[in-house]
Amino acid sequence: MSLSKLLLCMATLAALSGCASWFVKGEIPDVLVANITPLDSTPFEQRLKIDLRIRNPNDYELQVTGMDIRLDLNGKRLARGLGNQAFTVPRLSDSVVTIETTTSTLDVVRQVLGLRKVQALSYEISGVLYLKDGRLPFENSGVLMEKGELSGILTP
Q1: pLDDT of 5-33, one tens digit each?
Q2: Is 49 exposed, middle or buried (0-12, 13-18, 19+ CB in 10 A)?
Q3: 49 neighbors 100 (Cβ within 8 angstroms)
Q4: Computed from CA positions of residues 137, 101, 112, 114, in that sequence, does the dihedral angle turn out positive or negative?
Q5: Domain Water stress and hypersensitive response: where (predicted)?
Q6: Contacts 24+ apart (CB under 8 A), 76-83
Q7: Would you state the pLDDT for residue 143?
Q8: Any idea what DSSP says for residue 58?
């Protein structure tokens, strides 16, 4: 084997082992939306406080140093948030953490105009938990209101 091939092989292995340390081994935690509270707003921007319940199915605690989330409603982006709050999720347990997010007023208007009486209101939350030892991507979804439950709310 030539020296250049050997060096390329060693560099590839080193890069792959470095990338592997970015992701922590174990089960991915469940991240669920527990509550959404509107905060201050301007004509161009809306702020939301989102309480997230993080369930740790692993036999070790998660020492979270920050997070990056995206919240979609009915397949369209509603809000994005970043947080550098450190917290610990005990092993085989859960914790509730709050993150402030931002969305544009235009995105909120699109969401309201896109609601139909017969459509269910579903959400998807995705992002990354940054840990001391790496990071854990997550993704979860659910239904806030079943099909037809919006009819009483949207009818004047």
Answers
A1: 554 555 555 554 444 444 557 789 999 99
A2: middle
A3: yes
A4: negative
A5: 31-143
A6: 76/107, 76/110, 76/111, 76/114, 77/103, 77/107, 78/103, 78/107, 78/108, 78/111, 78/123, 79/46, 79/48, 79/50, 79/103, 79/107, 81/50
A7: 84
A8: S
Question: What's the pTM?
Answer: 0.73
Mapped onto helix, strand or coil, the DSSP state of residue 15 is helix
Q: Which domains does the chain have, with CATH numbers?
A: 24-154 (2.60.40.1820)
How long a stretch of residues is the chain?
Answer: 156
Token pair for residue 53? 């319940």
Report CA-CA distances (Å) from 22 to 89, 128, 138.
Answer: 19, 11, 14
> Running DSSP on this structure, what letter comes out for residue 42?
-
